[in-house]
Amino acid sequence: MEKTLTLLYHEVTDFPEKTGFQRKSANPYKHPLKEFIAHIDLVKNSGKRVLTINDYPFNKKEDTIFLTFDDGGKSALQAADILEEKNMRGHFFITTSMINNKYFVNEQDIRELQNRGHIIGSHSHSHPNVFKSLSKDKMISEWRTSKKKLEDLLGLEITSCSIPGGDANRNTYKTAFDEGYSFVFNSDPSLKIACVEENRYIIGRVCPKKGKNINQIERYIQFKDIKKELLTRKVKNNIKTLIFPVYSVIHNNNKHREG
């Protein structure tokens, strides 16, 4: 069976104070240019094909890599430039309430990314920090509002989304699929594209933080240590669940301090 590694990034920049969410918790997800380029060079030299959901051969036995970028920070165009130098395309998931904010992509940027061959998807409308804690109605509103804004902007159907924070429950997936998304990306490390129903897929991702040892990045690209990363994430999520009330208050207080 073929394997697919999906890497998750956020900002690619030497000036983290100028792009993306400005809260302290976002800093580990802002990669300096040199570091990100080193990752992409490893991907290029791996010999594995970098594809998108638009051209992925779901009926073939082929190991592949997806590249994804969450939030829709202003550095998205810079990340796209680096990918295109290697003849790669990525998936850019946009927090639609932040469109035209000075730290995030504007409407023209999104159109440009689409025209350059990248995939535009939803990262919800307002980026709730613990998406799975929302009521079902609020989940529907987040997915529906974001999808409509992007479709109105681009004039095409938006079929993919990524979950803010990456954590999901049954309602997270059900509401996304029911709102018309075919591909839902979470943050659970995996090498599988799980087909849960016809034209409904769940895709896990590996998220290397800033400063991650380059040898470990190479192991990911060799499809190694993915199960270990999943176990680590599950342990962290269990701890987070125990302290959820405090976690929720802190993050909600900081949520919209974007300047």
Q: Could you outline the blueprint of secondary structure elements for this entry?
A:
Blueprint: E1 4-9, E2 11-12, E3 30-31, H1 33-45, E4 49-50, E5 64-69, H2 76-85, E6 91-94, H3 107-115, E7 119-122, H4 136-154, E8 160-162, H5 170-178, E9 183-185, E10 193-197, E11 200-203, H6 214-221, H7 226-242, H8 244-254
Parallel strand pairs: 1-5, 2-3, 4-5, 5-6, 6-7, 8-9, 9-11
Antiparallel strand pairs: 10-11
Helix pairs in contact: 1-6, 4-5
Largest sheet: 5 strands, parallel
**How much of the residues is beta strand, in percent?**
15-25%
* Count of strand segments: 11
The H/E string reads EEEHEEHEHEHEHEEEHHH
CATH superfamily of the largest domain: Glycoside hydrolase/deacetylase
Give the helix level as a range of percent.
Answer: 25-40%
Morphology call: globular
Distance between the termini: 48 Å
Just give the CATH class of the largest domain. Answer: Alpha Beta
Number of domains: 2
Instruction: Give the number of helices.
Output: 8
Secondary-structure-derived class:
alpha/beta
Question: Which stretches are poorly predicted, pLDDT < 50 over at least 5 residues?
Answer: 255-259
